[in-house]
Amino acid sequence: MTTVFLATLGQRPEAITIALDVLLPRYTYDLIGILHTEPMHSGIAEALRDLKSVLKQDYAGLPVVYYQITFPNGDPLLDITNQYSAEAYHIGVLAVLKKYRSQRDTIHLLVAGGRKAMSIYATLAASLLFGANDRAWTILSPPALMKPGCYHVPPGFQEQIQPVPLPILPSRFLPETLAEMNIDTLLEQQRSPRTRWYETLSEQEQALVNLLSDHPHATNERLAEILNKSEKTIENQLSSIYQKLERFYEVKRKHKRQTLLDVLKN
Fold first, then answer.
1. What are phi and psi of 79, to 5 degrees?
2. Longest dimension (CA), the chain
3. Which domains does the chain have, with CATH numbers?
4. Which domain of life is it from (predicted)?
5. Are 107 and 135 in contact (CB under 8 A)?
6. Does residue 42 have a pLDDT over 80?
7. Backbone phi, then psi, for 138, in 5-degree steps?
8. What span, in angstroms and rounded, lies between the C-alpha atoms of 112 and 33?
9. Quick check: 7 and 141 in contact, CB under 8 A?
10. Short-list 6, 58, 57, 54, CA closest to 30
11. What pLDDT does 63 receive?
């Protein structure tokens, strides 16, 4: 059975390699996976570059895979700043965990190397998908050891580094609740109603909805002008959007345009 070591990356890449130094004498890992956001504009480009170099040089026997977490439509995710970015990060982590859970691999997830909000959502994802043999870890260490560039535990400090397993209670007590066949259903349930409704729209309707979200006070005439379509086409597309909105949310309201704008504002 394969055991994978996954870690969330923030601006403290040193936490990842220090954790590996402490955990490798206890566990045998077959793969390292690094979960990160878009590096160039999120402030982690240097951390990712340095981590890649250290992993390649000092852990040459372990294959390393990098997973960039994005929004569902593929747009780059920089940080958790609102509900949509939080949901995207949570679902992105769930998707990575699903890959290894579906292969019946054992997962060790380190949540010490990312921002606090990301660590929280990664832990929540683990609590949903982990099996009885999986582990989520954080690392406790003296502040002096987490200084930039300190990628390994100095001699004499080994005992001061404490890997702490996080209690993932749902998977411990109910390991069969989230069998592999149910993971896709779980991922579907984790998405917001707004996201699921949005995906019922055609590509042209999504473009119109995106435009309306950016220009909530635009008239149909103005929307048609921007999209280079006739006003009649815009009216027909809006009518279809309203119908899908009513079917999905099972409500009928007199002011359809305002209802749509309310949904777009969440």
1. -165, 170
2. 76
3. 3-190 (3.40.50.10770), 193-264 (1.10.10.10)
4. Bacteria
5. yes
6. no
7. -130, 165
8. 14
9. no
10. 6
11. 96
User: Which residue(s) pair with 106 in the sheet?
Assistant: 3
Of 124, 148, 123, nearest to 138 by C-alpha is 123
Tokens for 238?
């809006």
Whether residue 116 has pLDDT greater than 90: no
| Rg of the chain in Å (alpha carbons) | 23
Gap between the terminal Cα atoms of the chain: 44
Each residue's pLDDT tens digit, 64-101:
999 999 988 788 888 888 777 888 898 899 999 989 98
Instruction: Give the Cα separation of 253 and 52 in Å (integer).
Output: 54
